[in-house]
From TrEMBL:
[4Fe-4S] cluster binds at C65, C69, C72. This is Biotin synthase. Residues 332-353 are annotated as: Disordered. It comes from the Bacteria. Binds 1 [4Fe-4S] cluster. The cluster is coordinated with 3 cysteines and an exchangeable S-adenosyl-L-methionine. Binds 1 [2Fe-2S] cluster. The cluster is coordinated with 3 cysteines and 1 arginine. Catalyzes the conversion of dethiobiotin (DTB) to biotin by the insertion of a sulfur atom into dethiobiotin via a radical-based mechanism. InterPro entries: Aldolase_TIM, BATS_dom, Biotin_synth/BioAB, Biotin_synthase, Elp3/MiaA/NifB-like_rSAM, rSAM, rSAM_sf. The gene is bioB_1. Its EC number is 2.8.1.6. Its cofactor is [4Fe-4S] cluster; [2Fe-2S] cluster. The keyword Zinc does not apply.
Length: 353
């Protein structure tokens, strides 16, 4: 049995793989790539079968962000040729959302640029969430609005947000190399707040920013420690007009090794192959489905993606099926620790004290 299949066995048994084991996947050579994919696919198949969850991005507010994240086309000082506009109205969002839902999207991701939402922004987005839920009651809504504070997470949850997305992006040790206007702990704090408010935590990484293998392993392990439920794996889109415009280090096989490592570290959560897959996986895009159980349908925030009908054809041709709205994404055991209270106040049984 290959060492990678042994790691798959550990992952299926829900035994945490170590930092050294994660690094061994990243440092495998191209001659071992099929073994790596097979190991990751064994885990993916065990927990998620042949289902692929479709997510659809709606950029509510584009550009003009005050933060200086080096990878971002919307950053302060960006010269990237992108759309810039202020908040979309709920009816505009509903119109855009309809296309994604018609294409099979199970989750709509509402994203707004900026450091974090004001009270007015939260009210505006809450109305949009409520409008989507009224029109598409079976569709999950994920918000991504930057840093949260002052009860804003609770307000979004009350409006109907099912999840909140806020990527860690890279390891703590590397964070200062990509951003100076906030730090790693700021991001951890927002993920923690979202989770405490009852929203499903979605947080992932960006590969291809000049990071080391150790950084990729460390951010994957940090996400595991936060117990996130969805891990988007982005591959840098090196926009002209941003500090990382010249970063073109990724190869298709490198991307597949990264996805396999994330799958083995996070065996039973949603792993999403996200932005940049078209640029860096290229003709090997379908192989990502053997590792990730989730993708974005169509376009991204400021860049165009593969045409939606080609995404659907890719899924079909590779032998996978689109996950239905009524199907639960995460495996049953992820919910097994939740027990309804049957003792104490309101019952005849003594309280737990």
């Amino acid at each position: 049995m290959s060492p990678f299949m042994k790691l798959a066995g550990k992952a299926i048994a829900r035994e945490s793989i170590t930092r050294e084991e994660a690094l061994s996947v990243l440092r495998s050579d191209d001659g071992e790539i099929l073994e790596v994919i097979a190991a990751g696919h064994r885990v993916r198949r065990h927990y998620f079968g042949n289902r692929v969850k479709l997510n659809y991005l709606v950029n509510l507010k584009s550009g003009l962000c005050p933060e200086d994240c080096g990878y971002c086309s919307q950053r302060s000082g960006s010269q990237a040729d992108i759309l810039k506009y202020t908040w979309l109205k709920p009816d505009e969002v509903l119109s855009v959302t309809a296309a994604g839902v018609a294409g099979g999207a199970k989750r709509v991701c509402l994203v707004g640029s900026g450091r974090g939402p004001t009270d007015g922004d939260v009210e505006r987005v809450s109305r949009t969430i409520e409008a989507i839920k009224e029109r598409h009651p079976d569709v999950e809504v994920c918000a991504c609005l930057g840093f949260l504070s002052d009860g804003k997470a609770e307000r979004l949850r009350q409006a109907g947000a099912d999840a909140y997305s806020h990527n860690l992006n890279t390891a703590r040790a590397n964070y200062g190399n990509i951003c100076s206007t906030h730090d790693f702990d700021d991001r951890v704090d927002t993920v923690t707040q979202a989770k405490a408010a009852g929203m499903s935590p979605c947080s992932g990484l960006i590969a291809g920013m000049g990071e080391r293998d150790e950084d990729l392993a460390d951010v994957a392990l940090a996400l595991r420690e936060l117990d996130v439920e969805s891990v988007p794996v982005n591959f840098l889109i090196p926009f002209q007009g941003t500090p990382l415009a010249g970063e073109w280090r990724l190869t298709p096989n490198r991307c597949l090794r990264i996805l396999a490592m994330v799958r083995l570290v996070h065996p039973d959560v949603e792993v999403r192959v996200a932005g940049g897959r078209e640029l860096h996986l290229r003709t090997l895009q379908p192989l990502a489905l053997y590792l990730a159980n989730s993708i974005f349908l169509g376009d991204y925030l400021t860049s165009e993606g593969q045409e939606g009908h080609l995404d659907l054809k890719m899924i079909e041709d590779a032998g996978f099926v689109v996950e239905g709205a009524g199907e639960r994404t995460l495996p049953e055991h992820r919910f097994g620790d939740v027990r309804s209270r049957k003792r104490g106040a309101g019952t005849d049984l003594p309280a737990n004290a």
